[in-house]
Specification:
The chain is mainly β. It contains three helices and 36 strands.
Length: 503
C-alpha cells in the first residue's frame, strides 16, 4: 500500500485478538465507491485508479463518511489503507460512534491519539478520554482492535503495523459497545477537505439480528442512531430517554438536526415513525441519502405532505414529485417507502396508516437507488415531539453488492484473515472470479500456509473451484506462536498475506 504523507485522515484496521465476529466487509475501490454516504454540503466522492477520492468543493466545518455496513455491536475490527492526502486537514476521526459515544483514533496537527467518550454533548468540542498520544511523520495504515472480556473493553491500536497502544476500559458502559463505523474530517483555515483511500476492511457483528427488518422502541438510551447536522445543537437537542427518541429545540436561530438509522445502506425500503404528534414550525422529513444533494424524501411542511428528491443538483430545495394538503390533521404516524430500480423509482407516503400520496421518478441515476436512512427536522427554531417507535423494512444493499459486484466476478481476491491475531482458529476468505468464458466453469487453485522461513505448514486445499466467494478455517492448534503466511495461487495469480498466532 502507498504511504500517506501530510496530515492525514487516518487509516485503520481493526483485527481482533479474541474478537468474535460474524461479518466481514472489504472494498478496494477498483470499480466504484459502492454504498457509501457522506454529510458534506458540496463534495465529490468517487473511485479512480483503484482509489477512493473525497474532495469538498467549498470549505466545510466537518464531514462524516459512512460505509454501507449496519451499526455494529460488541467486538469489531477495521483496517484502512491510505493513498495520499491532497490537502491536509486540521483534525480527523475514525472508529465507532454510538448515540453518545465514540471509540477510535483522533488525529490533529501531526499527532495521533487513541480516545473514547461515552457522553458526547458537543460535537464541535467533544470531551474525550485520552488513552494514548504520540507524534507521527507519515501513516500507511492504522489498526484498531476492540474486543470484550467480561465487562471490560480491550483495545489494541497499531500505527504502520506497529503496536502503539494496548489497554482496557474497565466496566465499559453499554453505549461504547454499539455504534456505526464512521470517518470524519475537518479542514484548517477554511480550506477544502481532500483525502484518498486505497482499501478498507471491517470485521463486525451486526446490531440487527433480523436482516431486512428493524424495530426500535427506544427502550435503551444507547441505541446506535448517529446524530449530525447542526453540530453545536445536535447532541443537546436529540436524546434518548424514557422510552422515546426526543426532539426538543426552542431557540431564536433555525437549525437542522438529523439522525441516521443503524441499518446501513439500503435499496427498497419503508420507514414508519410513530410519535406523540409532530410539533414543529419547520420541516420534518424521512429520507434516504447518499449526500445532501442526492436523496429521496417525504416531508411535512406548512400543512402539506410532499414527496421529492435531488439527484446531484447543488441546490437547496428538492424537486417535488407530488404533494397533498394534510391541514390540521392530528398526525401520530408517518411512513415513507421507495421501491424500484433506477431509472424508475416509486415513492409512497402514509399518514396514520392511510396511503395518501404516491409519485414516480423516471430518470433516477444509479446513486439514487441506494443510501442511508434518516429522520430530520429543518428550517425550524421550535420543535417538540417524542418518537416512541420506528419500524424499518429494507433490502440490504450489501447483500446485493456481494452477489452483483462486478469486481468480485472479474478478479481474484484474497482477504485478510479474521480474527487476526488469532488463537487457535481463523477464517481465510477468498474469491474465485468469473472469467467470462462459458466454457470455463471452474479454475484450479490452492491455498497453502507457510511459516516465517518459507516452509509449508498446511495445505488448506488444492482443487478445482467454481466462481464464487469461499471461506476456509485454519486451525493452528499444533503450531507455536508466531508469524505465518497464507498464499492463494491459481494460474498466474499469486497473493500472500501475513497472520499472527498468539497463544
Amino acid at each position: 500500500m502507498k504511504p500517506l504523507g501530510y496530515l492525514i485522515l487516518f487509516i485503520l484496521f481493526l483485527s481482533f485478538t479474541k474478537a468474535q465476529t460474524s461479518n466481514q466487509y472489504q472494498q478496494s475501490f477498483d470499480e466504484d465507491v459502492l454504498g457509501w454516504s457522506h454529510t458534506a454540503w458540496n463534495a465529490n466522492l468517487y473511485a479512480e485508479n483503484s482509489l477512493m477520492y473525497f474532495q469538498t468543493n467549498e470549505p466545510e466545518d466537518f464531514a462524516f463518511l459512512f460505509p454501507p455496513i449496519p451499526a455494529t455491536k460488541n467486538d469489531f475490527s477495521l483496517k484502512i489503507f491510505g493513498g495520499g492526502i491532497n490537502n491536509p486537514f486540521i483534525s480527523g476521526i475514525i472508529g465507532r460512534a454510538g448515540f453518545k459515544s465514540f471509540i477510535g483514533f483522533y488525529i490533529t496537527s501531526g499527532l495521533i491519539f487513541v480516545v473514547y467518550t461515552n457522553d458526547i454533548m458537543d460535537y464541535t468540542n467533544p470531551s474525550m478520554t485520552l488513552l494514548h498520544g504520540q507524534p507521527f511523520q507519515e501513516i500507511s495504515n492504522l489498526e484498531l482492535n476492540v474486543y470484550i472480556t467480561g465487562n471490560d473493553l480491550n483495545i489494541l491500536a497499531y500505527l504502520n503495523d506497529g503496536l502503539i497502544y494496548s489497554g482496557q476500559i474497565t466496566d465499559a458502559e453499554n453505549d461504547l459497545l454499539n455504534g456505526q463505523i464512521v470517518l470524519g474530517a475537518s479542514a484548517n483555515n477554511d480550506e477544502h477537505i481532500s483525502f484518498v483511500l486505497d482499501e478498507i476492511q471491517i470485521n463486525y457483528n451486526s446490531i440487527n439480528e433480523t436482516p431486512g427488518y428493524f424495530i426500535d422502541e427506544f427502550t435503551y438510551d444507547y441505541s446506535p442512531w448517529f446524530r449530525f447536522g447542526d453540530l453545536e445543537n445536535a447532541a443537546p437537542s436529540i436524546s434518548i430517554g424514557g422510552g422515546y427518541l426526543n426532539f426538543i429545540y426552542n431557540q431564536p436561530v433555525e437549525t437542522e438536526l438529523i439522525v441516521s438509522a443503524p441499518v446501513g445502506a439500503t435499496r427498497n425500503f419503508s420507514v414508519e415513525v410513530e410519535a406523540n404528534g409532530f410539533l414543529s414550525n419547520g420541516t420534518i422529513g424521512i429520507g434516504r441519502f447518499v449526500d445532501y444533494h442526492t436523496y429521496t424524501s417525504l416531508w411535512i411542511e406548512e400543512g402539506n405532505l410532499y414527496l421529492g428528491y435531488l439527484d446531484g443538483q447543488i441546490i437547496d430545495d428538492p424537486y417535488v414529485v407530488n404533494q397533498i394538503s394534510v391541514g390540521d390533521m392530528d398526525i401520530q404516524k408517518i411512513k415513507f417507502s421507495v421501491t424500484g430500480t433506477p431509472p424508475i423509482l416509486e415513492l409512497s407516503g402514509w399518514i396514520n396508516d392511510n396511503l395518501i400520496l404516491t409519485g414516480n421518478i423516471n430518470d433516477a441515476s444509479p446513486k439514487l437507488g441506494y443510501g442511508h436512512l434518516s429522520l430530520s427536522v429543518e428550517k425550524s427554531n421550535i420543535y417538540n415531539f417524542l418518537v416512541d417507535r420506528i419500524v424499518i423494512t429494507y433490502d440490504d444493499y450489501l447483500t446485493n453488492l456481494e452477489e452483483d459486484n462486478p469486481f468480485l466476478k472479474k478478479e481474484f481476491t484474497l482477504w485478510q484473515n479474521y480474527p487476526n491475531p488469532f488463537n487457535p482458529t481463523t477464517i481465510i476468505k477468498f474469491t474465485i472470479p468469473n472469467v467470462g468464458d462459458e466454457n470455463i466453469s471452474s479454475q484450479q487453485a490452492k491455498l497453502i500456509v507457510y511459516d516465517i522461513l518459507g516452509n509449508e505448514v498446511q495445505k488448506l486445499f488444492s482443487e478445482s473451484k467454481a466462481p464464487g466467494i469461499y471461506e476456509v478455517e485454519f486451525n493452528a492448534n499444533n503450531l507455536a506462536s508466531g508469524v505465518y503466511f497464507y498464499q492463494l495461487r491459481s494460474g498466474n495469480y499469486v497473493s500472500t498475506k501475513k497472520m499472527m498466532l498468539i497463544r
